[in-house]
Fold this sequence. Notes:
The protein is α/β, with parallel strands linked by helices. 31% of the residues lie in helices and 17% in strands. It has a single domain (2-234), classed as Rossmann fold, CATH 3.40.50. The chain has a seven-stranded parallel β-sheet, sandwiched between helices. It starts with a strand and ends in an 11-residue tail after the last strand. The structure holds fructose -6-phosphate (F6R).
Amino acid sequence: MELIKAKDYREMCKLAAEKMIKLVMEKPNAVLGLATGSTPLGTYGFLKQDYEQNGTSYQQVTTFNLDEYVGLDGSHPQSYRYFMNKNLFSGIDIQLDNTYVPSGQVENMEEECLNYESLLRTKGPIDLQLLGIGRNGHIGFNEPGTSFQTNTHVVELTESTREANKRFFDSIEEVPTHAITMGISSIMESNEILLLVSGESKAPIVRDLFEKEQTEEIPATVLKSHPNVTVIADEEALSLLTEKV
Ligand code: F6R
């Protein structure tokens, strides 16, 4: 894993956006893997700004999102489809038909998992997968203990993840209990992975990621065996590393 140290959140986002823009300029029909949450918001802001100022085009780009809450329709303000439309897709010239977010509101969730996986195979592989990391080491919604062999699947969210995400809902009861997520194996099939980490609250998991052995108890440690991973982390996130970088 290559580590790039950023001064702060803003610099992390800027570096990530520059990498994504470079890819789209070199490969206009790139396939991007996208994440939601607080971490990539600033990066999406820079992509929108670049589109406005420089006109980088996403007309031929395809995107795949990592995950979606089960039970939330795409028009629900806390759904990840809504998040993506609002925070990125509406601000660039991407064709919405080329943006894939797993659906959390179909009758047959098993079938949706298989469909998503087959879409990933026919339209993919993903050229660059953007990832955030949970404080417990989850990537996508692959919680600790998830097999590294998993494809897209439905998961029961842990209490710590529901607790961490309750800030977006009126109460903890409203946070969905299940989600559909690309599996660890699906994520690992991406040609390149870009993990973004910012802030003090992520410092313990960043230390674990770099200093512990690979284990399914810390899902993100799977990235150690991917040949092309870049981690962009800010100073606060790196503050607990034993070997200072
Ligand atoms: C979101 C996702 C999650 C988040 C993680 C970190 O699509 O897959 O794994 O990346 O929970 O969330 P934030 O960025 O809000 O700290």
